[in-house]
Write a structure and sequence with these properties.
406 residues; alpha+beta; Immunoglobulin-like; five-stranded antiparallel sheet; five-stranded mixed sheet; 19 strands; elongated
Length: 406
């Protein structure tokens, strides 16, 4: 495949031997703190914080990297025993029963990759395509992967994804057995998605790329192609869909972004009933006997890599009055969440291993916009749930007493 050649740059930037323009701004600038860096704990504060800023890669460079990246994924997803040049396995092993179920599925399935081995193997693939270290440094390759919209690095709790003690990256793909469906490259994989999305829908984009003939499994089953799904940010958290008259209502949403850890967001609504209001990221209020059910729209705005993102979520809020209905509604107060992987159940009990280098490198890069806003959020959610549980128990006892006196 021919390399992309560009004309001589008109700006002050320099051009590498591969034809890719690299300006000096792409080297990154450290803002705040001393040149020697600082501890991880100092990154969150506004004073003395160290934040790594990276200028975006040129569109021509990203287009070339995307082309190689999706061919690399085609090869990798077809070979579950793939290793990097050091012999380290790239795929995170899963339980045999789960692997059998995933292999039989025709829907999108998760692939879990060990970060260090995945990064090394992709960098080696770039070198094989002529993008050597002097043309495209490994640091730029890591920044490209950290920002990639087809890689999920964080779970809904804002923690780095782990599997059996190893930090992993998730990529979702499904098989395309029909060769006519994979004869061309989908442009959706190369086009940045809009920063505005509907969090209530499962919106996603998919990249369809041609097979990689160098794959060990290519000649054994040349009809297998893979379609990859883009991760889109959304409003997450338990949705409280039921409110009871006289009982405090508390709903605490949060933002899930596959490339960011719990970004701080401003929540608002175009319309709210008089008994509801937003206070420090929580929707609070106590409905009265005259209040009725209504539709609630949640609007979230947050910054992502210097760009303003906007998400929306709409749900139906049902207001119930035990005095009128004669009994308390004990319906579930949350949406059904996606089933978590079986091998992630013990993640919190597993120790860190394998990817400390990636953590240290990422610590320099991590874009910190949250500051003090996210501190204590988990504690506030826990206290809110405890207060709501106590209020429900009290209301349940009063309802029983009213029934006995009738």
């Amino acid at each position: 495949m021919s390399s992309l050649m560009l004309s001589s740059p008109t700006s002050a930037g320099t051009t590498g031997s591969s034809g890719f323009p690299f300006s000096t701004g792409n080297q990154g600038v450290v803002a705040g703190g001393s040149s020697g860096g600082g501890s991880k704990s100092g990154r969150e504060g506004n004073t003395g914080a160290r934040t790594q800023f990276h200028a975006p890669l040129e569109p021509e460079v990203v287009a070339r990297l995307d082309e190689i990246f999706f061919k690399f994924l085609q090869k990798l997803c077809s070979d579950l025993n793939a290793c990097d040049s050091k012999g380290d396995q790239i795929h995170q092993p899963l339980m045999a029963k789960k692997m059998q179920r995933l292999e039989a599925s025709t829907d999108f399935r998760p692939f879990k990759f060990r970060i260090q081995a995945f990064t090394n193997a992709f960098h080696e693939s770039l070198v094989q395509h002529g993008l050597t270290e002097d043309i495209l440094p490994l640091r730029k390759v890591k920044v490209y992967l950290w920002k990639h919209k087809y890689i999920s690095r964080f779970n809904e709790d804002g923690k780095k994804q782990k599997s059996k003690g190893n930090h992993v990256w998730n990529i979702e793909a499904r098989k395309l057995p029909d060769p006519s469906a994979s004869t061309s490259t989908s442009t959706s994989a190369l086009t940045p998605s809009s920063t505005t999305g509907d969090a209530g829908s499962s919106s996603s984009k998919a990249a369809i790329t041609t097979g990689f003939e160098g794959s060990p499994n290519y000649h054994r089953n040349p009809l297998i192609r893979w379609e990859f799904r883009e991760y889109t940010s959304r409003i997450a958290g338990q949705i409280i869909k039921f409110a009871r008259v006289g009982v405090p209502y508390i709903y605490t949403p949060r933002i899930w972004d596959a490339q960011m850890s719990c970004p701080a967001a401003e929540f608002s609504s175009p319309w709210l009933p008089k008994w509801l209001k937003w206070h420090r990221g929580e929707l609070r209020g106590t409905p009265g006997p005259a209040d009725t059910s209504c539709s609630i729209t949640v609007v979230a705005e947050y910054m992502r890599e210097g760009e303003k993102c906007k998400l929306e979520l709409t749900f139906q809020l049902t207001v119930s009055d035990p005095e009128k209905e004669g009994e308390l509604m004990d319906l579930p107060n949350e949406d059904e969440e996606e089933e978590r992987d079986e091998d992630d159940d013990d993640d919190d009990r597993c120790g860190d291993s394998g990817d400390d280098d990636e953590d240290d490198d990422e610590a320099e890069y991590q874009y910190q916009d949250s500051g003090e806003a996210t501190r204590g959020r988990g504690r506030n959610r826990k206290q809110g749930r405890e207060r709501q549980t106590a209020a429900r128990a009290k209301e349940r006892q009063e309802s029983k007493r009213r029934k006995q006196t009738r």
